[in-house]
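Example for tutorial group B:
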């Protein structure tokens, strides 16, 4: 049984998709905790209602990024995680924190990386006039939004799309690919070789 700790900053819809899939598909894993940097993160309510341990490590309570990351790491490690899942966790992480979870921390980013790292990805995509946009699940490295890619999902950009409509269609895809990737991880189907992720054939 693998332990998964999920970090959220807000709504937590990706976290909810993962919790639901883990239950419905009876993964060899349990969601050990959902942790947020914000006490008002909606996702915490869903987790608590599903009997999952929750915790808040408020970034505002720490004078520096380093001290926040140390406190966060201590809280996460109370649950002996095999995997840390960033699900809309809106903090830039320090290199020692990232190194501590090397090869066992995943993130979802709302663009087809390496296009549009950073914030406001749907606006970036609309401004660039791309005709295909999407989401990426990747392992986290110290290089923001540039870790080894595990899975991507694409959507067409439609002529009348707004940030809202485009983000909604991308989010639907996020809810499909993120649980799938977490499942592959807990089933030991992922390997990283020279920055390239290989997925066990059975998983495809
Ligand atoms: C998701 O669209 C996720 O891809 C994005 O935040 C949203 C969180 O939604 N993450 C990032 O932008 C990370 N840089 P959720 O809280 O409903 O899962």
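The residue assignment follows.
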């Amino acid at each position: 049984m693998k332990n998964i700790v999920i970090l959220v900053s807000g709504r937590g819809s990706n976290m909810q998709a993962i919790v639901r899939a883990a239950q419905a598909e009876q993964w060899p894993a349990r969601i050990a905790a959902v942790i947020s940097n914000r006490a008002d993160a909606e996702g915490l309510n869903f987790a608590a209602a599903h009997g999952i341990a929750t915790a808040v490590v408020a970034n505002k309570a720490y004078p520096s990024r380093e001290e926040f990351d140390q406190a966060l790491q201590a809280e996460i490690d109370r649950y002996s995680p095999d995997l840390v899942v960033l699900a809309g966790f809106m903090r830039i992480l320090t290199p020692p924190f990232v190194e501590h979870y090397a090869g066992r921390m995943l993130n979802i980013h709302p663009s087809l990386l390496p296009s549009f790292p950073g914030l406001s990805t749907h606006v970036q995509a609309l401004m660039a006039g791309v005709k295909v946009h999407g989401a990426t699940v990747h392992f986290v490295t110290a290089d923001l939004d540039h870790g080894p890619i595990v899975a991507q999902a694409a959507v067409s950009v439609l002529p009348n799309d707004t940030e809202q409509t485009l983000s909604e269609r991308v989010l639907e895809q996020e809810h499909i690919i993120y649980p799938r990737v977490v499942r592959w991880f807990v089933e030991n189907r992922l390997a990283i070789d020279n920055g390239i992720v290989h997925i066990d054939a059975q998983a495809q």
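The domain at 1-101 is CATH 3.40.50.170 (Rossmann fold). Compare this with the pattern of hydrophobic and polar residues in the output above.
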